[in-house]
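Example (one chain per record):
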Amino acid sequence: MTTEVLKDLVRALQCLPGIGPKSAQRAAFHLLERNRDGARRLARALEDAMDRVGHCVHCRTFSESEECRICASPARDSSILCVVESPLDVAAIEQAMEFKGRYFVLLGRLSPIDGISPASLRLDLLEARLAGGEVRELIVATGTTMEGEATAHYLKLLAERAGVTATRIAYGVPMGGELEYVDSSTLSLAIQSRRAY
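Predicted structure:
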């Protein structure tokens, strides 16, 4: 028989992406049976993060201070602005390469069906940044979903209005990938995004 406290724990764990009722129950039972110290550390870390982590006032990525370390760095090139959908995208780019520009995090993507408009994403902040004259290139790094492509198109229009060059990150065949195993959409994008060799 499951207690009310245990039911609450299982429900709470379901707020995590990809965690359904069975996975949440498995995790809850594991923590209670085998790793209570780990569960307490997790609870403290979650509470600490919720209290101390906010958004950078400039780029809107996660930060413990008003300005994130990327925006605070004088080594970053303010003339190149990369627009991404989430702070997770910033982390991925930072881990993958030596990008020296700055970021603007949308915290979503345009989706009229879901009620996510330019105002919802605070694209007025991006528009003001582009109008400031410092940005020369806007790198659009949104996903290739229908919503991501619609967002990319909207961002391109914003850049054009501000007289800023808009570029789109290329998509295509992964390193080490064999063409016969690549899906047709990815292969099509790879062909369309080709560059001089």
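Caption: The longest strand covers residues 80-84.
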